Amino acid sequence: MDITPTDSALPPPSRGSVTRIGDRVFSGLARGSGIFLLVVMASIAVFLTIRATHAISQDHANFFTSFEWDANATPPVFGIGVLIYGTIVSSVIAMALAVPIAVGIALFISHYAPRRLATPLAYVVDLLAAIPSIIYGLWGAIYLVPHLKGLNLWLDEYLGWTGVFDKTDPEGAARSLFTVGILLAIMILPIITNVSREVFRQVPKMHEEAALALGATRWEVIRMSVLPFARSGIISASMLGLGRALGETMAVATVLSASPVLSAKLLDPVGGTFAQNIAAKFGEASPFGRDALIASGLVLFVITLLVNGAARLIIARRKEYSGANA
Amino acid sequence: MKLSRNSGLRALTVGAVAVSSALVLTACGSDNNASPGDTKTSGAAKSSIACAKGGQLLASGSSAQKNAMDVWVKNYMAACPGTNINYKSSSSGEGVTQFNQGAVSIAGSDSPLKPEEITASKTICKGGQGIDLPMVGGPIAIGYHLPGVDNLVLDAPTLAKIFNSTITKWDDEAIKKLNPTAKLPSSNIQAFHRSTDSGTTDNLTKYFNATAKAEWPYEHAKAWKGKGGQSAPGSADIASNVKQAEGTIGYFELSFATANNLQTVKLATGAAAPVAASSENASKAIAEAKVTGTGTDLSLKLAYDTKAEGAYPLALVTYEIACDKGNKADTLELAKSFLTYIASEDGQKGLSSIGYAPLPTEIATKVRAQIATLS
Questions:
Q1: What is the helix (H) or strand (E) element at residue B88, kind and residue range?
Q2: Which of A29, A239, A324, B15 is the most buried (most CB within 10 A)?
Q3: Does A145 sit within 8 Å of B244, measured CB to CB?
């Protein structure tokens, strides 16, 4: 443990007063990295804002409430009503499906599975993260969509009365926000699982053993010592996943039947998301059309900031439990 | 120790299985995306190509002519060592923008230059301007998937109504009337359009504007304006969606119908017999087009309402854009030589095998004459 200075003739360094060149270089590098990140974020924000204000000022429709996106037309008409709705709805569906499953997988790997099953399972989850999103998109369009037809019919038949699961054309293809939500859930599964698993591993063994000593069953151990300790970590993990879901482009663009229609019926093949709309319109966009797309990108940027801020608040309120990942 | 090594091995096996299945998945993906032109090597390099000395030529633009360009570029470069031609398939708008910035010497475009684009081109083309040279034609096929119904016949107003969701059932009276003998199901029509802005959409809606004004009340545009229906990003996606489900209909370049084994609609144009979507029939319709460009420009106005026998009017023509005068000195020779080859009989000959339509003789003659004067 002892690290003796090479030059033993020197008096022992008094704490904090002596700095070596290595200290200075490292602290400079670390500070530099921090500043660099802030500069990158600031310049992205400035770039987006300048281009976006230019576009929005010439919009002939209400940018926030109108549905149509025709920024190349004269006069340009574009709005993000459908996109905000579609982005949030598909991400919420994805989170609702992915978080419980991911936490379950993580708990299984860290607390239930025998070691020789836990390791390969962790590998497989990691592999999910390595698949490019266009492959998810193709798989979604070619395999998932036709195979969700039965589920759609069932939902329409038995839960159609809710309105949310009512499908206008029950025989139509399942290329809806709901399907996108399922696909996104699979895509964000590995991120949430991996981070949660690491957090669960950091739960102090003493806590768990103390609970066991008090006669707790394994489920009670998890409920009383693991989950409270890991809560802020799970929230952080979910936010990472949500970030990916909000910004996912190719998979959504391939699977969703996009159209400028806002519908509460989740199974209808309508709607759109920010990233999908940018992918669809960028190719043939005029220079002005690009600025309009950048304006929509700015809104997504702001939404992501807000969501992360909200998550930080929740974590801060639960500080007393938090371990390493606060 | 032994146990843990064993489990490590097992993990590796599982990992390997997962990796290989991921690879299989990737392979499937790229299979479906492969463009039909890729596999065909159209003939050996012809000796008739008058090669330039060498050099590099950059071109960019329309993705609709990508497959034709790929074949041409390959043949030309095989015949002419030392030359390097790069056609970046982006979009018509991108191509024209880059041309007017001087970044590329040739642009490919689905639509002729607009007046303001011609004005902008004068700064790059010293003493001249950018001109449109029609080069690749092609039919836009209407593919459908309806088991038991072969040779579906539709006319422009009915098509417009289907794509605007005014007709929603396959056994609608209008469709029955055009197909008296077919057994049409009573199922819903799932009509697919492009979610990306596209020159194909623009040409389809131009056709509707010319032939079904009442049924298609919107101005032609690259963005889809119709009501209802489903959307998918590219032509390949539309074709695979149509193939996947029954009761579907969608529009794409003919090559996608051939590649996916999809049936295509025959158009009732007013000619004696309904016309099938084929390269040959599209060429016949393009032959009816009028040159509307002034001076050195050869932009065409297609006769969408033609009633000529065997002419398939739902076609598009894509252009190459170059300077009539003031082409960049270092690429002029190569550009001229390459354009001469692609407009030649040799160059046009291979087009129909990859779903495009060769230029009709009269127009091709004009294009060749114009290319010879480029400077």
A1: strand B83-89
A2: A239
A3: yes
